[in-house]
Specification:
single chain; Rossmann fold; binds NADPH dihydro-nicotinamide-adenine-dinucleotide phosphate
């Protein structure tokens, strides 16, 4: 575990378990120089400490990139989100943590958790902490149901297309959950042609463009298993990002683009909807191949912008109009997309390196002002 720690963090790693429910989970607080630890909570059968630490680090850069004052953190529960015992597992996780970190971490949504789960977390916490991403009826901002992160991913795509004067508008998309389906919806509204999508149940492809309104309707009716209702469009799972397309948007899992397959990407623009979808080695391959990449902590920062609104709404007499949140997401993400493209051009190297160095500058300033030793390798 100690090899996960460097000069930036993590400041704290808390691993917990519960024999009764079989729950195993971890909270990683990466760097709080700019504020209290804030990041979503993930539930997946494969969750590991290493994965949550990497995600917590992404959160440190993400909050700094949008210039909002929270610190990087993430929590993960190693369990199946469709388990009939989900609520018991979730409650056991929160119970184990609530004495440890009520002042250091605010729960939120990530893969496998929904607004109803955030409500359960709040119930279990009582007055000893908080979750955001709760339903409206609890005073929350249900940012996954509103599809704000996916909307922002599509805005980043549209800005990158405009800035780089990319000619094509065909998009290959992985994932059709909270982020993926909303990205598809906004891309469709902006006139893009989504040619592939996927869920864990399979992948669909239509070179002439999938009928997104129909897919969204099927998803509402059948959940993410809707892909099984369209056998004529099915392609091999895992190939959906590598079909003929101009733009590639991974919006499901981490590390899906690595050195073994990066060369098979046909798109000229890759916009990371998921966290950590592209390995560091693959980023270099894509750079050498001339593929423009918009990093995760730039493109999917709609989640943190809405989480910040949700944090404020907890104590405010006013609730923001949802239109205001969408507008803030669009403005911040479009500006950051332009800035990262310009900085990448100025510095050379990968766009991840360029975007990270911009974020690191802000974190470093905060560390300095707090009298902390500065990372020497940054
Ligand atoms: N929610 C948010 O606000 C934010 C999320 N993110 C990141 O976006 C990514 C997606 O999160 P989110 O949409 O919230 O998660 P969800 O759980 O809502 O959706 C995940 C999607 O990925 C699909 N999926 C799972 N396994 C595979 C697979 N092997 N191949 C193809 N698709 C698969 C799921 O299908 P199925 O339903 O069938 O399992 C589902 O459609 C994650 O990396 C997350 O960290 C980043 C910023 C904010
Ligand atoms: O902070 C949150 O609650 C949601 C945002 C998040 O976890 C992310 O951007 O990965």
């Amino acid at each position: 575990m100690f090899d996960l720690m460097d000069e930036w963090g993590p400041e704290k790693i808390v691993a917990v378990s519960d024999a009764k429910t079989g729950m195993k989970g971890v909270l990683v607080i990466d760097n709080t120089a700019r504020g209290i630890g804030k990041g979503g909570t993930r539930m997946q059968p494969t969750v590991s400490v290493d994965e949550i630490a990497r995600l917590a680090r992404v959160m440190t850069w993400k909050w700094a990139s949008v210039d909002l004052f929270y610190g990087g953190a993430k929590a993960g529960i190693q369990a199946d989100p469709v388990s009939p015992y989900k609520e018991e597992i979730l409650r056991a996780f929160v119970r184990r943590l609530r004495n440890e970190v009520p002042e250091e971490y605010v729960f939120g949504l990530d893969m496998g958790l929904t607004e109803n789960d955030a409500a359960i977390i709040n119930d279990e916490l009582g007055t000893r902490g908080a979750a955001v991403g709760t339903p409206y009826e609890l005073g929350g901002i249900p940012y996954d149901q509103l599809g704000i992160t996916g909307y922002g991913v599509a805005e980043a795509v549209d800005q990158a297309v405009a800035t780089t004067a990319l000619a094509g508008r065909r998009v290959a998309l992985q994932g059709f959950g909270a982020v993926g389906h909303a990205a598809a919806e906004r891309l469709h509204a902006l006139g893009y042609q989504v040619v592939s999508v996927s869920t864990a149940a399979g992948a669909l492809h239509d070179p002439n463009g999938l009928d997104i309104p129909t897919l969204l309707g099927l998803r509402r009716e059948l959940g993410d298993a809707f892909v099984s209702a369209l056998p004529e469009l099915k392609i091999e799972s895992g190939t959906e990002l590598f079909v003929d397309a101009d733009i590639v948007v991974p919006a499901a899992l981490q590390d899906v683009i690595d050195v073994s397959n990066a060369g098979n990407i046909k798109g000229r623009l890759l916009v990371e909807g998921a966290n950590l979808p592209t390995t560091v080695e693959a980023q270099a391959v894509l750079r050498a191949a001339g593929v423009t990449v918009i990093p995760d902590f730039i493109a999917n920062a709609g989640g943190v912008v809405s989480a910040a609104f949700a944090m404020d709404a907890r104590h405010s007499a006013f609730r923001p109009e949802t239109g205001q949140i969408f507008e803030a997401v669009s403005t911040k993400l479009r500006a950051n997309t332009i800035q990262v493209l310009e900085e990448t051009q100025r510095r050379g190297g990968t766009s991840h390196d360029a975007a990270r160095s911009l974020a690191q500058e802000r974190v470093k300033q905060a560390m300095q002002l707090r009298g902390k030793p500065l990372p020497v390798n940054a």
